[in-house]
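#lab-general

N.A. 3:47 PM
ok so I finally got the sequence cleaned up, no stray characters, all 400 residues accounted for. can someone with queue access submit it? mine expired

B.Y. 3:52 PM
send it over

N.A. 3:53 PM
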Amino acid sequence: MAAPTPTSSTTDTTTLLAPPSSTASSSSLPGQQPPTATPTSASATSPSSSETVSTSTPTPGSLSASSPITSVTPSSISLNSSSTIASSTASSTATNQTSLPQPLPNNVSRGALAGAIVGCIIGTAALTILGAFLFFRRRRKGARAGRSEHFSEEKPSQHPSLHLGASASSLHTPHPADDETVRARILTLFDHASLHVDNYYSSAAASNLHDPATSLASYESPYLPSPIATLLAKPGRNRAVLTHILVRELLQQITPGPGKGGLLPACYASCPQVVNQTPETDQVLFKWRMLTAYLYQRQQAARDVDEHAISSLAELFVDAFTGYANPAHTRAERLQHLRSVASAAAELGRWLFAQPCAFEFVWGYPGRQGMVITPRVVKVCDEQGRRLAVPQVMAEGTSL
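B.Y. 4:20 PM
back already:
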C-alpha cells in the first residue's frame, strides 16, 4: 500500500477527539512492544509543516485474520516527533476545556441562585418602603408638634367673646354701599317729605285752629327758634316749619333708641344705648348690629313693613295739621300719600341699620333766621365699626 503524501497547511484545524479504538494483539514479534492505540488529531500544525495521522482499517481481502493495524506516518519529522504530537494534543485539549462553561461552586444550581437574587430584590424594596413610611410619619409628627407649640406660645385673648363676635360678624357683614348711594337715598326721602308738604298743605295761616296746644305738643322741636304754633302763625313760614316737623318725625321713627324707632323692627329699635362711647363699645355695638340684621333678614321677608306703625304715623300728622291742609285734597288723599312716604322711610331705616357704616343726622346748624329745615347727614363709623376721627359730611342740611 502506497504511503500518503505529506501536505502543508497554513491554517489551524480544530482538534477532533475520537474514542480510542480497541486493539487486538495477533502474533507479536519477539522483543517488540505491543502497539498501543493513542487518540490523535486528524492533523497537527507546526510552524513549519503539518503532520498527517491516518488510521487504516484492514479489509477482509487484503489482510489475514490478524488484528487491525494502526499506522502513523510522519510527514517531515522523525520518530521523536511523537512527543511533539502528544504535547500539541494536550495543549489543544486544555484550551478546549478552558473554553467550556465551568460548573458552579459548591454544587449550587442556577434556580437557587436566581431565587436568591429575586429574594434580595424583594427584601430591599420592602425595607425601602418601610423606611420611607417611618420617615414621613416622623416628619408629619414633627410638623404637628411645631404647630402645637406655635399655638401654645400665642397669648390668649383678653376678650375672647369680642374675638368670637368679630369672626362671626365678619362672616355676615355685607359689602358697604358707596357714599353716593347712601347720600342719594337719604336725600330722596327728604324730597318726598318736602313734596308732600308742598302739595297737600297751604302756605296761608290756619283759619280753623282747634286746641293747638294739645295737638302740636308732641311735635315741638328744640331746633326751632319758637313754638310751632307761633311759627305757623307767621306768613310764609308754614312750608319750612311743616317740612322740618315731618322730616324730623320720620327720622326719629327710623332711628334706634328709647322712644324712637317706631318704623323699625323691634329688634332694631332696641339697640343698646351707651353714654360714654369708647372704641371698645363702638366695636361691640357694630358686631351686635351686624348680627342682629343678619338674623332678622333670614327670618323675615324682604319687605316687612309694620303697616300699623305707618298708618298711625300718617293719621297723627294729618289730624294734627288739618288746619293747615290744602282744601284741594281730601283727608284720604293726604293719608294715602303720607303712608307711601312713611313706608319709604321704614325701608330706608332698615337698610341703614344693616349697613356696616354708621350715619347720624345733625340738626344744630340753623340759618340766619334760626331755623333748620333738613339736617346734615354725616358718617361717623367706617365699614369696620371704627369711629372716624373727623365725621364725614355726606349731605349738607337746609336752613332758613
